[in-house]
Amino acid sequence: MTAETKKERKSVSPEDLAKKIVNSLRAKADPEKAVQIQRYFKENVSSYGLAAEDIREIARDLYESVRRNWTIEEAIDLCEILLPNKYLEVKSTAEIFFLRFQKDFGRPVFSLIKKWLAQDYCDNWASVDGLCPDGLGGLMEKYPDLVHRIKGWTAHPNMWVKRASAVAFIKLARKGKYLDVVYQISRKLFPFEEDLIEKANGWLLREAGKTDIARLEKFLYRHGPKIPRTTLRYAIERFPEAKRKHLLEKTRER
After folding, report:
1. Cα separation of 149 and 210, whole Å?
2. Which of 35, 98, 185, 199 is the least buried, fewest Cβ under 10 Å from its Cβ?
3. Sequence-ordered strand ranges (E) for 68-128
4. What are the backbone angles phi and psi of residue 173, rounded to the nearest 5°?
5. Contact between residue 179 and residue 140 where contact means Cβ atoms under 8 Å apart
6. At what angle do helices 159-167 and 179-189 cross, to 10 degrees?
7. Which residues pair with 46 in a beta bridge?
8. What is the CA radius of gyration of the chain?
9. Given its phi and psi angles, is residue 37 left (phi above 0), alpha (psi -120 to 50 degrees) or beta?
10. How far apart are CA 23 and CA 193, in angstroms?
C-alpha cells in the first residue's frame, strides 16, 4: 500500500463515509422492490428496495476501507449520522457496520443503544431486530449484570424499547442462557396488545424452547389464558401438530 493510499484511508471521516453509504445505496435503488418490501411492515417505511445481500456487500466493502484506522468512536459517530435517516437500508448498513466493532463494545454502548431505540432511530421491527440480538445480546454475555437492567424495558413507553427487551435475548435463549430472565420478561409483556410485541414475545419463547422444550410447555400450560394468541402461536411452532392443537385448546381463556 502506498503512503498516499494510507493517507486517504485515514482521511475518511464518519461524515464522508455516511455520504458514500447513502450514495451507494441510492445507486442500487429498485422502486418496484421497495413497494414489495412495504408489505412486510405494518407501519409505513421508506426503502430503496435493495436486497439484503446488496446491503451487506456495501457495508462490507466500506468497512474494509476504514477498518485499519477506525475505532468504536468513529463507528458510533457514523450511527449517530445514519440511524436517524428514514430509509431502511441506511439504518441496516449502519447497524451492520457498527456490529463489526462488537469486540470493542464497552458498558456505555448498552445505554447508547437504548437511547437510539427510545429516540425512534430504529422505528421498525427490522431495524430493532438487526441491532439488538447481537448488540445487546453480546453486551449481556460480556457483562452479565446488564441482564437485569433490561427487565425494566418491558414497561418503557416506547414500543421499540419494549420489543428490544425480548429480541435482545433471542440468541441467548437459543443457547439456553438466562432462561429465568427470559420467562420473567415474557410474562411482563403479556398485557401489551401490540402485534409487534406479541410476535417478538412468541419468537423469544420459541427460541427458549429449543434447549428445554419441557420447560416451555409447562410455562404455556401455566399461563395460557393470559398469553396473547399471537404470542402462543409463535411459541408453539416447533411442537408436533397434535401437541400444538392440544395447547391451543387447553390454554384458551374460559
Report:
1. 25
2. 35
3. none
4. -65, -35
5. no
6. 150
7. 87
8. 20
9. alpha
10. 39
- List pLDDT tens digits, range 83-140: 999 999 999 999 999 999 999 999 999 999 999 999 999 999 999 999 999 999 999 9
Cα(174)–Cα(182) distance, integer angstroms: 11
**Per-residue CA distances from 34 to 51, 88, 105, 225 (Å):** 10, 10, 33, 39
The grid coordinates of residue 96 equal 451492520
Residue type, 220: L
Instruction: Kindly state the helix (H) or strand (E) to which residue 40 belongs, with its residue range.
Output: none
Cβ atoms 167, 203 nearer than 8 A: yes
Element (H, E) at 153: none
- What is the dihedral angle through the alpha carbons of 31, 126, 171, 159, rounded to the nearest 10 degrees? 180
Max CA-CA distance within the chain? 75
pLDDT tens, position by position, 21-41: 999 999 999 999 999 999 999
* Cβ contacts of 240-246, under 8 Å, gap ≥ 24: 243/217
8-state DSSP, 66: H
Query: Which grid cell sits at 191?
Result: 398485557
- Residue 201 in grid coordinates: 414475545
The amino acid at residue 194 is: E
The C-alpha cell at 90 is 441506511
| CA gap 160, 181 in Å, rounded | 19
Q: Angle, to 10 degrees, between the axis of helix 108-118 and the axis of helix 72-82?
A: 10
Q: Which amino acid is at 185?
A: I
Q: How far apart are the C-alpha atoms of 170 and 132, rounded to whole Å?
A: 9
